[in-house]
Amino acid sequence: MAAAAAASSAAAGAADGVDTNLYSRQIGVYGMETMGKLIAMKVLIVGLKGVGIETAKNLTLAGPQSVTLYDPTVTEAADLGCNYYLEASHVGKVRRDEASAARVKELNSYVRVSALEPENGKDLSTADLAKFDLVVFCDEGPAGFVRPRSELEAFNEFCRTQATPIGFIVASVRGVSGMAFLDFGDAHVVFDSNGEQNRVATISNISNGPVTKVMTEDTKRHGFEDGDFVVFRDVEGMDKLNDGEPRKICNVTAHGFDIEEDSSSYGEFVVCSATVEQTKVPHPVAFASYADRRLNPVPADDPMGCLITADYSKFGRPMQLHVAYAAVDDFAASNGGRLPKPHDEADAAAVVEAAKALCAAAHASGADTQLPKPEDVEADVVAMVAKRAVYELQSLAAFFGGVVAQEVVKFTGKYSPLRQFFYLDAFETIAEEGHDLAAKDVSEFAVSGTRYDHVVGLFGSRYAEHLQSRKVFLVGSGALGCEFLKNFAMMGLGCGADGRVTVTDMDNIEVSNLNRQFLFRPEDVGKAKSVCAAAAAKAMNPDLKVEALEVPVGPDTESTFDDAFWSGLDLVTNALDNVKARLYVDGICVFYRKPLIESGTLGTKANTQVVAPFITESYGDSQDPEEDSIPMCTLKNFPHAIEHCIEWARDMFQGAFTDSVQEAAAFRDAPEEWVKKTLEEPNAFTRRQKLEGVVNAIDLAGRADWRTCVEEARKLFHTHYYTNICQLLHNFPKDYVNKETGVPFWSGHKRAPQPLEFSIDEPEHLGFVAHTAALIADNFGIAVPSNWSDIEALRELTASMPQPAFVPKAVVIKSGEDDDAVEGGDDDDKVAVEAADKLRSIAASKAAELAALKLAAADFEKDDDTNHHIDFIAAASNLRASNYRIPTVPRHRVKIIAGKIIPAIATTTCAVTGLVGIEILKTFRVPKIEAFRNTFLNLAINMYAMSEPMPPKKTVSKEYDPVTMGPLRAQPEGFTPWDRIEIDGSEAMTVAELRDNIAASQKVDIDILSVTVNGETKMMYAPLFAPSHRARETRPVVDVCREMGMDLPEKRRYVMMDVACSDSDGDVAVPRIMFKF
Asked: Which PROSITE patterns does the protein's record reference (predicted)?
């Protein structure tokens, strides 16, 4: 049934060949135009070790026309540690590509997935490449061997010289470093370089002259940059600027910019509601070949003048990695395709010499080169790559698999492609010599033909065993959680006899999850995420010791996640999508002093944060500012952005189809009580709205048929888009001038609206009526006819419906947020009383009919494309936009905003969880803070910013503290949130004994002892403020806490307290108190 439901929902959401339900979050990132190009793309992926399978998975989820795989190597045991679609039964029997294709095709039924059989029957040739739009070469072949670079260069030359160039990408992970290279030909066109929504600003003034100077309102930065193109709208007095032509801006300031255009003859700017909007202008980008970039990897026009540097503490490292990779290629070319033997000093030395020889030859040739001089080659970097080149760090494979799949999407012209090399290393994951987990000798790196060969070969057998015995808690099993479970299974985390991975998530699987939560399948829809994800991960590695729970993590479930649970963990990984839950888990990890790794995504952007006990600050120590809310006046009467219109439509949905029907149901069930309570509402306008709404709902429910529903929908259109707009213009005519300032009322952000008269010839008008009528029918249990959306049927029904002329009313409307007038009409009280009387009359005379009324309030659901909810909001918001001359938006954009959907794509999720995996490997060897990295990335613009985490915030002594308004002494000096004072007591210890214990140990006087009860801080002992607290001094602390309402489970043997204290010199700050009993 679940699979059938998924198929039905998918069919309902299909538009222009794109399943808008399945791809809803992705469409929110890419847009429909890019999706239209993507579903026509044919891609070949060569090599199916770690990077290759990650790229194939991410790309198949994205939805191109076809993904073809090629890697004829028969599966080896070590492959099971990097390609999660290979199984033990495939080892020595089944080709990597055939085994992988069978599983990859399960990810997306819209994508044709197959294994390639070469045209020549032997190996890949240009005849094979010619069938595709883009080819990706990843690590392939038997362990320890690579395809010669010369072949890749020849394939690249073929691809780039076709009439329509074939996109060409190379990606590889060698040990604890990785790379990607991209070539889209000589004239690739980028249509949208960053994927951001176009910024819009309100114009305050335009100065004429040889150079046109534009000023925007100073209440908000416009956000434009030098070189942006903009389009002007609704400029009065300078009509020439409204021609729709993109204009390049320069000399940008926070609230202004220039245009190098002579506007002397354009006329004088008139204060109005003019806007200027950023626009994207297509531009070509030229690439060089793989061969040409060998000696000069940085394009001449690169604004930074260097290879992408993700970690500026390693400035220059990418160029050293470029040389190292080239040297390994040269070594392989001289050794029959063989990579350097692992941890072999002689081979590593040979690669170092090859690196120096490459650089020496480049500089001796007389040609331009960006390579370092031979003496500047960093031998330790080259050796690190060489000694581990045969192995793959799975976390880096996940990262580059996300990056590369995103680069494939960029072939559509969306976003900025890599120019052209990208290198990243994770050398810090290798334990330093002398550390307990560092390999003592080379014998520890000996592999034995198992799925853990990559981990053992990179870190040694003892560290591999250490990973397997860890106990990890994964909070959430959505998109991030699925990727984490896969990564854990591949790296062996929690896969030993003593290991454990506990995952919890209380959500069930929905159709829209299938596009990026890759462990789920259509038949899983409706089932528990955690259970399905855990089962899928265990299938990838049967050794994984995973327990799936469906319990939320929070104060209400501390009996499940108790002291024993948290104390027994080695690591917590968050995969959450809300700040409240993150803060709770963060606080718990600080309390139990457990490492936590945070991550989150937003479209092509993502971030990671390491929280290490006593080493870094916690997640709660720094938070993003809250989003700005839309002022009520803007929402009700003065919108100037589509977001305002969508929020207004969402409120309209809530009021018309949810709140009013719920109120009607409450009246039906208890008529007199409801009327009496409503008449006590202090605001007359609100009182009137509620009573009139219920009168209308009861009336409709009692007589409704489909025609009545259409009639009511038609009335709603007339009220909201004609009558109310006419009333607003009656109160504030278009020529209205602010009497205090002399400025036209309709200027700046206030856009003068225009009433819309209903027309049977306008499809948008009829669409609104159709979806509104269907919602009304659902409210009152009326069957919606099969031809509900038929244009001709709607025209016939609505053609004869009256459109009353506007009659002005005496209504107060606020002129702005600063206006303290009380809105409403002068007859609100009278109408409210009349409505109440009518309802009482209905209750008295039609009690039986009233009790029998069917009333079903709508429960907003964004992901059901058959329920009319998003369709109504899209129609309502775009009509509102038309009222105010605001550009309309497509349905999927409305869905993202109205549903508060976080745009999400598999590529970003995969990449960021790979980075988290790298930090996990560092966590278990308790490194210095310098080894950790927090990361912010944006795949759209190739921005990778890694930084050392901030240390924990310290409490220090101050001569003057603004809170205490005097001197403050920290005891001990520089304590952090990770610190606490532990008091060993007993159930019998009294408040006075506890007070004296703290006072003696800290050499302070105790002023206040506070505890937290149900999230609220309460004073347990504060005799200066509450003399009655003296009576508590002789009572046991535990009894007083319970009396105050604190829940103390039997297994919890402590109470956390905050203390305010002082000494003879002033106030003293101390860590929190843990009173143990």
From this structure: UBIQUITIN_ACTIVAT_2 (PS00865)
